[in-house]
Design a protein that fits this description.
This protein is of the alpha/beta class. The chain contains 15 helices and 14 strands.
């Protein structure tokens, strides 16, 4: 059994300062467990001495880790490329200067890590996706995770996809694969391992027990992006609430050593543990934030009531993240809302006035982007913002026509709208970024869908969108008032 090595010498650019010497009774080579311990414990050397039948030592078999420079990081991902085996020899013939060997290896480790600029404080990550689906589905999923990582300011050094018949309930990937991922992370100098799947509290604990690296899952990555983007007080409250709800079941402690002892008769045992105090404080904070969210919801309901009294129609732009919603809002209303080519660039909802043909004035909202498997805690926390769409008279479903996952993105948005109870609101499908399509792709897109195709960067393509929006809004408002009004509106539109 290994003793506790946590206090032993170890650092990002050096080994632990310990060598492991043990015996093999059957003359076998270093086992996979030996090599895994060598990497995971960052030992200077792993050596096995054969024991002969007469009790005397046989050959010594040894291996050490192999530092990887930036040029070869992607060239060799095989486990055999992570260590170097020394030539087996008798103990009396060992002439290697181990101190000199380890010092030269640590110099290589330090050089490999100095490739990172001193001013670059971004985390380095390996992305891991475990799936029971096809390889193409897994590739699409981890590609989206890469985009999320880029939006969060994370540098992706490697991507690992594992296909399994069934997900491992303890560590998601299985013990052997987890060791391989950790070894690869140590070899590349990774700070974070990002899992594409959401980890249960038990799985997160099991993986954290195996490594000191930071472990986050897809939900944590999205919450981190939202925390970076939140600018308004409302947005910050909603993000903090989502983070606390995610964190609460994952708070862990260990026994009475964390307890706060009480004094006096009957109070000499362990008192309330620090873990219990932390959980109580988190619950109190959650209740406080939920009350603030309820106040925001009440305020929004009052605003919606005022708009309804003034009979001002409301249009909301919805769609998958990075579909170009903010860019479209800027083009339609000559605004300057922040728009970037990355996921969740806009978090706080924005409302602007827009004048449609026939002097009709409407309010158009830019909403937070949707994503596949939107975290439930995020939906709950952003309920006040998402409720803004409930009062909409028309939804513009914006989709990125240039995306290879176009159909999947449309289906994900439709599912989220249905889950939010917004499926009954009239909506117009709008394909954006047609400037990135060929003529054949564009004609096929128009013929296959009853939609409008635009480029938010080219205002001349928005004329048809404005006309269709005005027509659909006329029908929606007429139907909202009386069925007879809708019939007259349809006749007017047909005649025009």
């Amino acid at each position: 059994m290994w003793p506790d090595l946590k206090r032993s010498r170890v650092g990002a650019g050096r080994f632990r300062g310990l060598r492991c010497l043990h015996t093999h009774l059957a003359g076998e080579s270093l086992t996979q467990d030996d090599l895994a311990d060598l990497a995971l414990l960052r030992l200077d050397l792993m050596a096995a001495i054969d024991v002969r039948s007469d009790g005397l030592p046989g050959l010594v078999r040894a291996a050490h880790l192999l530092p990887v420079d930036a040029a070869s990081r992607d060239a060799d991902k095989e486990q055999n490329g992570m260590w170097v085996f020394l030539e087996p020899c008798a103990p009396s013939q060992l002439d290697t200067d181990f101190l000199d060997l380890i010092e030269s290896l640590e110099e290589e480790l330090a050089r490999a890590r100095h490739i990172r600029s001193q001013t670059d404080n971004r985390d380095r990550a390996i992305l891991v996706s475990v799936t029971t689906d096809s390889a193409s589905v897994a590739e699409e999923s981890i590609e989206e995770l890469s985009e999320l990582a880029r939006s969060a300011g994370v540098v992706v050094l490697d991507r690992i996809i594992q296909r399994r018949p069934k997900l491992d309930p303890r560590s998601l990937v299985g013990r052997g694969k987890l060791d391989e991922i950790i070894i690869r992370s140590l070899q590349l100098g990774v700070d974070v391992i990002v899992f594409d799947q959401n980890l249960s509290p038990a799985q997160a604990r099991a993986i954290n027990e195996a490594t000191d690296l930071k472990i986050i899952d897809r939900t944590q990555l999205i919450l981190d992006i939202f925390a970076q983007r939140a600018q308004s007080r409302e947005g910050k409250i909603q993000v903090e609430l989502a983070q606390l709800k995610y964190m609460l079941p994952r708070l862990t402690g260990s026994g009475t050593e964390m307890s706060r002892l009480m004094g006096g008769i009957g109070g000499r045992g362990p008192g309330e543990t620090k873990l219990e105090v932390d959980r109580r404080r988190v619950r109190d904070r959650i209740h406080h934030l939920e009350r603030q969210i309820e106040q925001i919801r009440t305020s929004r309901r009052v605003q919606r009531t005022r708009r309804e009294r003034r009979d001002v129609p409301v249009i909301s732009i919805v769609g998958y993240t990075n579909a170009g919603k903010s860019t479209l809002l800027n083009a339609l209303t000559a605004s300057s809302v922040t728009a970037e080519d990355r996921m969740f660039a806009t978090l706080d909802p924005t409302s602007r006035r827009l004048r449609l043909p026939r002097d009709r004035e409407v309010i158009i909202n830019d909403t937070v982007g949707f994503i596949r498997d939107l975290p439930p805690d995020l939906i709950t926390a952003f309920r006040a913002t998402l409720e803004e769409m409930e009062g909409s008279d028309l939804l513009l479903h914006l989709a990125d026509a240039s995306s290879p996952q176009l159909e999947g993105h449309i289906a994900s948005v439709e599912k989220i709208l249905e889950d939010l109870g917004l499926a009954s609101i009239p909506r117009l499908l709008v394909f954006n970024k047609i400037d990135l399509l060929s003529e054949d792709e564009l004609s096929g897109l128009r013929s296959a869908n009853d939609a409008v195709a635009v480029s938010a960067l080219d205002r001349s393509t928005l004329v048809r969108l404005v006309e269709r929006t005005g027509d659909m809004l006329t029908l929606a408002m007429a139907e909202k008032n009386t069925p007879v009004g809708r019939e007259r509106a349809e006749q007017t539109i047909d005649a025009r």
